[in-house]
């Protein structure tokens, strides 16, 4: 059963085609669009500002989304938010990626098809134009992304589109096995390797 909580009369909205892991928590003014993936232990707290996750976006394990009163925290279509990232009152553009453990602060805007590198700290009011590689603490714009790097990101997002379907159709709570089976299979499917020189 999903951990979804209303507060002050506002109830989270989850599109029927989205997958929200049962350990994730949605509170208040949270809107999850079609075909989204919300991973284990993600916390989307719409108890101050509104949180919007648009179609096809993913919010991975342990991410935190929050914002001040009268603000919106928005992940646009096919946004890709890596494990443990924190978004606070910011906008992540269409087809952009925020790397693992990165922090994006209030009123920052990450342009479409951009990548925020893992563990970067994006200060409040920072503006990254489309196709930017954003890296560092505090973050700066390092360069423009190459086409192959953007395609690498898009393939990763397509993998999460498939994970949404896989999770909705095959994930279930089970009792663990006591030993490894003979000829244990691997998970099906792989999108290929990261391109040489791609952003982290």
TrEMBL record:
PANTHER family: DYNACTIN SUBUNIT P25, GAMMA CARBONIC ANHYDRASE-LIKE 1, MITOCHONDRIAL-RELATED. Pfam families: Hexapep. It comes from the Bacteria. This is Phenylacetic acid degradation protein PaaY. It comes from Noviherbaspirillum denitrificans. Coiled coil: none annotated. Residues 178-200 are annotated as: Disordered.
């Amino acid at each position: 059963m999903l951990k979804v909580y209303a507060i002050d009369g506002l109830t989270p909205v989850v599109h029927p085609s989205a997958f929200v892991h049962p350990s994730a928590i949605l509170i208040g003014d949270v809107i999850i669009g079609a075909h989204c993936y919300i991973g284990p232990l993600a916390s989307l707290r719409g108890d101050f500002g509104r949180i919007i996750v648009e179609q096809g976006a993913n919010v991975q394990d342990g991410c935190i989304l929050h914002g001040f009163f009268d603000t919106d925290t928005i992940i646009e279509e096919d946004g890709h938010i890596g494990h443990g990232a924190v978004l606070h009152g910011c906008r992540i553009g269409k087809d952009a990626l925020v790397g693992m453990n990165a922090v994006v602060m209030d009123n920052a805007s990450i342009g479409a098809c951009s990548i925020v590198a893992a563990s970067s700290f994006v200060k409040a009011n920072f503006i990254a134009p489309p196709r930017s590689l954003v890296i560092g603490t505090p973050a700066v714009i390092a360069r423009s992304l190459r086409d192959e790097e953007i395609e690498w990101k898009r393939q990763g997002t397509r993998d999460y589109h498939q994970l949404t379907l896989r999770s909705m159709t095959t994930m279930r709570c089970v009792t663990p096995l006591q030993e490894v089976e003979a000829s244990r299979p691997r998970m099906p499917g792989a999108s290929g390797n990261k391109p040489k020189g791609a952003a982290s």
